[in-house]
Amino acid sequence: MKRNLEALARQQYDLVVIGGGINGAATARDAAMGGLKVALVEARDFSSGTSSRSSKLIHGGLRYLEHLDFKLVREARQERRRLQKLAPHLARPLAFLLPIYQGNPFSPATIRLGLNVYDLFGNLGAADRHRMLDASRACELMPALRREGLRAAAIYHDSGTDDARLTIETVLDAADHGAAVANYAEVRAIASDEGRVTALEVEDTLSGRRYEVASRFFVNAGGPWVDRVRALVKGFDGSRTVRLTKGTHVVVPPVTGQLALLAAVPGEDRIFVMWPWHGGAMLGTTDTDYDGDPAAVAPEQADIDYLLRAANSVFAEPLTDSNVRCPWAGLRALVLDGAGKDPSAVTREHRLHEDPWAQNMISICGGKLTTARALGEALARQVAARLGATLEGSSHRAPFPGGHTGPLEPFLRKSVDQAHREFHVAPGVAERIVGTYGSRWRAVLDPILVRPELAEPVAGIGESAGGYSEGPLLAAEAAFAADQEMAMKADDFLLRRSGLNWAGTLLRDAAPAVERILASYGAFSAVPSGSAARSSL
Ligand SMILES: Cc1cc2nc3c(=O)[nH]c(=O)nc-3n(C[C@H](O)[C@H](O)[C@H](O)COP(=O)(O)OP(=O)(O)OC[C@H]3O[C@@H](n4cnc5c(N)ncnc54)[C@H](O)[C@@H]3O)c2cc1C
Fold it and tell me: Distance between CA atoms of 472 and 456, rounded to whole angstroms?
């Protein structure tokens, strides 16, 4: 995957997608697979918007059952099943414990009913079915739980992912199917004529050069920026399509053990989740309206206090500020419906929006990581129909680039052993690399055979990892990110390609060494890394 804006700008496209989050990437992937001539331009780095800042769950959304959002839950449960086949390394089943305390808005009977529906909408087999537990069994399985007031609990299953890598692999596959893709390529202006968009003015934000990109159709996948992109078209009426709400996560010690946890926030009609993550537990999330610059979203102390209060309502020993690591915040772009509604009650379903002054542009509003592949497939079909074209293929049955593993566990065991024997990589590091890159792991390590120095840890990575990283990152991984995955800055590798995601903030000391490796592959590293990402540390 090579970045070449000059070559990208020289073509006339069928479809140009604005925004390289999961929704834009999924649309570009399916359109390219179907045979359209596609380009994707991303203002910052792929997945640097909401698509690296989520709760990282491939989930049916148990909570949406409460809002009778059956269609969304059913589609999400089915997508979970599909992703488990097509990208097993990026959709790993997770067992959740759901404690039911006195005073919770739901009773054991309602939970049992909801989980029966959840199972009915699609699970991964018998082991994936829910089961109910009494209070003592729940405390045996999760000893940190507060026993007092616990009425019962349930075990049910969703899946965990790495949202940034899911997005990067989607972009990669789009590129492998012929899409021209570029990060650090911001749409600054949009030219239109008689209600139709004709071209985009795209700035290469690394060099400052501007290019014109012409196409027959456009998809605005700007996520939280969707209305700002709409506003670039002549005739914009000032309307809004989405409401932005902020969600913060933090990492705390692994108090839930091997299990994930979903529980009610006391006194509110909301839930919070925790799940085992990079040696700790991810805890999230908040849901508060946000009016500022989307690029400046950052966690605040009030968010952290809220999360600790929620978590401490179910644990015997309280977590404190000193337990909190690497907080991050992201923005939901929720479909505007019912002003004044509680943010948590707004639908998570996406909506496609069209403006009369931009008749060949569709804007994506809202959505979920879980259902993005299906959205991309449906939207590519719609674009093709508008262009009078028929798509020749789709992502419906297509494994992701690293998804050629078959059942994950035996693949992991065999590959970790091979990586250790052939490349002398420590077993823990091998496990992390195989788990992160799936069937592409060999392409990461192969260059070590000709450049043995790539087997060394990236300088500066070690003590600073604070126990959340599974062994040091190797120079070979940074080299791979630059050479194969278009990493241009240190954070592109540390936060979005290494598999550490926000746990990568603990390795910031290694940024200069990472930048030296990226620079040796021609990446532009003279610019200070990801200012938005930095501001949220
Ligand atoms: C706190 C939180 C938790 C969540 N948890 C989950 C979960 O567990 N499971 C789940 O399924 N979903 C979850 N979601 C929802 C999911 O993360 C989002 O639906 C998804 O990431 C949105 O992707 P997107 O592509 O629409 O937006 P984004 O990822 O924000 O992508 C939009 C991109 O457009 C780019 N852009 C903007 N303007 C321009 C321009 N002018 N030129 C070029 N590019 C531009 C931006 O830089 C950005 O990268 C969560 C969301 C939040 C906020």
Answer: 9
Ligand 1, residues 8, 45, 51, 92: which to mutate, most atoms within 8 A of Cβ?
51
Q: How far apart are CA 74 and CA 87, in angstroms?
A: 20
Concatenate the DSSP letters of all residues of 197-258 into one string.
EEEEEEEETTT--EEEEEEEEEEE--GGGHHHHHTTSTT--S---EEEEEEEEEEE--TTTT
Nearest partner of 445 among 404, 470, 416, 468, judged by Cα: 416
Compute the distance from residue 354 Cα to the ligand 1 centre, in Å: 19
Give the model's pLDDT for residue 532: 34
d(CA 171, CA 24): 9
Closest by CA to 214, choosing from 15, 403, 410, is: 15
Give the separation between CA 291 and CA 296, rounded to whole angstroms.
Answer: 11
- With beta carbons less than 8 A apart as the criterion, state whether 58 and 122 touch: no
Splitting the chain (537 residues) into consecutive groups of 10 residues, what average pLDDT does each group show? 92 98 98 98 98 96 82 93 97 98 94 94 91 98 98 98 98 98 98 98 97 98 98 97 97 97 94 96 97 97 98 97 97 81 70 97 96 98 98 96 97 97 94 97 97 89 56 94 97 96 90 94 55 30
Q: Is any ligand 1 atom within 6 A of the Cβ of residue 20? A: yes
With beta carbons less than 8 A apart as the criterion, state whether 200 and 189 touch: yes
CA atoms within 13 Å, Cβ hemisphere of 537: 13
Nearest residue (by CA) to ligand 1, atom 2, is: 54
Closest CA relative to residue 22, chosen from 362, 358, 376: 376
Contact by Cβ (8 Å): 392, 35: yes
Gap from CA of 267 to ligand 1 centroid (Å): 29
How many CA atoms within 13 Å lie on the side-chain side of 191? 11
CA atoms of 73 and 70, how far apart (whole Å): 5
User: Which mutation among 289, 368, 375 tests ligand 1's pocket best, with the greatest number of atoms within 8 A of CB?
Assistant: 368
Position 526 scores a pLDDT of: 41
Cβ–ligand 1 distance for 52 under 6 Å, the answer no
